[in-house]
Design brief:
This protein is an alpha/beta fold. It contains 12 helices and 15 strands. It is elongated.
């Protein structure tokens, strides 16, 4: 063990922070975790309750000790930040789910009960108070809470891009399996009505509604489009060159919202294919006169292999990625709700990419296959609890809501309530 030493040029004093070289080595299941309570320390927690301290079995009491001209903090805050934000525990992980994703239930955060806490941000909040005690003449930047909404466009139309045989099968399913006469009648109207634009009767065509809700709440929606087909059973049925998709891209851009990439199912381990899909999206947008300062997006099905997928995004020339949340549980996969620069710990180098952690996805909370909280108060409280955790540290609540998850009034009401909460 040794220490990090923080100093400020031209000012007396220093802060020593414990540097524990081996605390975060090894598989996640072998890394210890204890807790720290701020009671009696002279420090205030960002969020009420004990704060998890991964990598430690015990902490010194008191955690903060006074030095001549400064303080010593007895926990490796910077080691924690590096371990969480580089997703070190996921490198070469073997405990994957059926879609080859690292699941939340295998994570250190879930096993030790801090998945729904932005613990990196909370520990940095503690550090900020120590900095102010040491150098009261300094003015620290105050972060302003924000909400960021994005929408993965897996299915822009329910049946608009189906071939005639597949349309027929869908209609039979509507009539015989789902007993939905209305959908049966509307299906051919939607299919034949999807031409230069999406059909206005299409239940999946919620794009105007999403943009209006964002505009009403001072938000900018990001829409991520699939531009490839590496698994026909999992990827989209539409082609981004279709006239209706081009028209949608133009409308999104003209209204001041964002367009991004949703790489196809198998690209998370195929950097060259991901790069081709990114180039395809940029080419189509250029043909439509669409220019953006930043290009980002999110992996389809949240498939991510660290560091392979991160490198692929960087090598494709993308500005940011917003995949890093879990499918099975909401929360703080990276321990933070702030965007940050990607660091490739395996190669020991920075990557030209920003990471925008995903905090919550619609189906993660609502769907029976995950938390199964439905669309009522229990689901609302889960979403808002995560939002309040972000607010407590002045961070960003990043919410993924699919255009296909707005088919009923309760779902639309839930979405709007979350935004205004």
């Amino acid at each position: 063990e040794d220490r990090w030493v923080l100093t400020v040029l031209g000012l007396d004093g220093c802060i020593e922070v414990l540097r524990a070289h081996t605390s975060f080595d090894g598989p996640a299941r072998t890394i210890p975790c204890t807790q720290w309570c701020a009671n009696g320390s002279g420090l205030q927690p960002a969020i009420a309750g004990a704060l998890a301290a991964p990598g430690s079995t015990t902490l010194p009491n008191p955690l903060l000790t006074k030095l001549a001209g400064g303080f010593r903090i007895g926990y490796d805050i910077f080691g924690l930040a590096a371990w969480m934000m580089t997703r070190h525990e996921e490198i070469c992980a073997e405990e994957l789910d059926e879609y080859e994703r690292y699941p939340a239930v295998q994570s250190h955060a879930y096993r030790h009960g801090y998945l729904e806490r932005p613990i990196v941000d909370e520990w940095l909040f503690v550090l900020g108070q120590v900095i102010q005690k040491t150098w009261p003449q300094l003015t620290l930047r105050i972060n302003v809470f924000a909400t960021r909404v994005s929408h993965d466009v897996d299915e822009p139309s329910r049946v608009g891009f189906l071939s005639i045989p597949r349309l027929g099968r869908a209609m039979v399913g509507d009539l015989l399996k789902r007993s939905d006469l209305s959908a049966f009648i509307r299906a051919p109207l939607i299919n034949f009505g999807t031409g230069s634009t999406l059909c206005r009767f299409d239940p999946y065509n919620t794009f105007d509604w999403l943009m209006r809700v964002s505009e009403r709440n001072g938000l900018r929606s990001a829409f991520y489009f699939i531009c490839g087909r590496t698994d026909p059973s999992k990827d989209a049925l539409y082609e981004p060159e279709h006239r209706a998709i081009r028209s949608l891209l133009r409308e999104i851009h003209s209204r001041g919202h964002e367009i991004g990439l949703h790489p196809s199912f198998n690209t998370f381990r195929s950097p060259h294919v991901l790069a081709q899909e990114a180039q395809r999206l940029r080419r189509i947008c250029a043909e439509e006169g669409i220019e953006q300062e930043l290009w980002g997006g999110r992996m389809h099905w949240l498939r991510w292999e660290q560091p392979t997928t991160m490198r692929a995004w960087a090598d494709a020339g993308m500005s940011y990625d917003s995949t890093l949340g879990y499918a099975d549980l909401p929360g703080f996969r990276c321990g933070t709700c702030f965007e940050y620069p990607a660091f490739d710990v395996a190669a020991d180098r920075m990557r030209s990419l920003r990471i925008r952690p995903l905090i919550a996805m619609d189906c993660t909370v609502m769907a029976d296959r995950y938390l199964g909280l439905g669309v009522g108060e229990e689901a609302f409280e889960k979403f808002v609890g995560l939002k309040e955790a972000c607010r407590a540290v002045g961070g960003v609540f990043t919410l993924l809501w699919h255009n296909t998850e707005l088919l009923t009034p309760p779902k639309r009401t839930l979405y709007e309530r979350i935004l205004i909460a």
